[in-house]
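User: Thanks for the earlier help. One more: Translation initiation factor eIF 4e-like domain-containing protein. Can you show the sequence and predicted structure together?

Assistant: Of course, both are below.
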Amino acid sequence: MADVATAPMKQEPVPLDTIPISPSDNTPGSTEPSTTTEKKSEGDIRTVFDDPENFNVKHPLMNTWTLWFTKPPSGKGDNWNELLKEVISFDSVEEFWGIYSRQNNITPTSDLALKSDYHLFKRGVRPEWEDSQNKHGGKWAFQFKDKKAINIDALWLHVMLAAIGENLEDEDDNEVMGVVVNVRRGFYRIGLWTRTVGKSLPGEAGKGRTAEQGKETLMKIGRRFKAALQLKENEMVEFSGHTDAAHAGSTRAKAKLTA
């Protein structure tokens, strides 16, 4: 099993208005969490804060997200497809907190076995370099080498909230594919996958961003990712392309950018 990080902070649901949600003219109720402890009747509005299992109000996210899990290899020639498992998809704030508010539903990152991974990606995107939506992209990443000095559960939660809340990029950037956390013997690594490496994709020549604009977009995302990780100014997140990593035979390809 992985080294256990310092005791995680209690993961209380954040106020709904801290996560951008899609406009919905027919969504009932307020985005403010309820503070009443009175028993709700059958016809009353119930948010996830009132009842994490039987809520009847949904505030849709901008995208549908899928959680994936990579189990540790058995050492018997397992291939990636056998190890990578789709866990669950959700498209609302309430569903996210319904998943993560029940302690025994999703195993905390700090309790995962070595060589395990969680991946949270937009629906329809597999967390693989070979996926058609990833093959021209790359990732920002940071390794936490002192595993006992950080609260990996709180950090991973914070990064997931930044992703589903669309806080890692601007609306028209169309870069963020997903986020991932790796559990390894000597470190935890959290990464953010992007659709490109700052260049126009095949078929987009003349339609997309210039190389300079693409680089600045990636740098902006890197800076936001660094903020989500709560890193110090002198701690650098690194960006590398998936193709470079594949050629290097490692996820530790030489960094193209730092932030």
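User: Great, one quick takeaway?

Assistant: The first strand starts at residue 60 and ends at 70.
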